[in-house]
Predict the structure.
Amino acid sequence: MKTLKSIIGQLIIIGILLIIILTDYLNPIREYLPILWTLIIIWSIVYSIKYRRGNVVNELRFLTNNDDYNKTYPFIMGTLLFIGGICALVLIKEYLIFISLMTLNGLLLIISGIVFIPNGAIWIKNNELVSVSGNQKNNVEIEKLSEVNLFQDRIIFIDQTDKKYNLEHLKLEMSDFSKISDFINRKLNKKIEIKTYGNN
């Protein structure tokens, strides 16, 4: 699942950085490598703020089953990095740039948790309706889309040939049904049949 993959990816990045730091490879450039992670976190924060303010008009987000964890993960990792970084700055006199950046990244992760936005999403791109949940991604041509079925745990997009595109592992509320229906009706230049169901 995407959550596990992202955790493994971040652990690999941190592991590579630690190996570089603890060896003489790329010295002294190695101290600046965490800035790449810093920039990624900053971009994520900026995007989350833009979405929460309503400045991302072509996208609608909704909760997935993993989002309870995704909300808490930045706080846990961020707190560990921030407190660990503060302690390291006090106790260690080497690698100050690296330690400072990791401390900053901890603070930024905490902020990213505060401005968290759900990982489920639909948006319009190049005449296609794109939907994402975890590692699932569907692209359906708008002209061929004929029906959308909304369940609490999934969305099914059906095209004119009765081909189904499933978006699963969702955690939709009744209010999400209305938001998704309104988004599709407003953004698509054609009439789409939208049906809502329980968890059957």
User: Anything to note?
Assistant: Residues 67-91 form the longest helix (25 residues). The first strand starts at residue 59 and ends at 62. The beta strands are 59-62, 120-125, 128-133, 136-141, 145-150, 154-159, 164-168, 193-196. The chain has two domains: 2-114, 120-196.
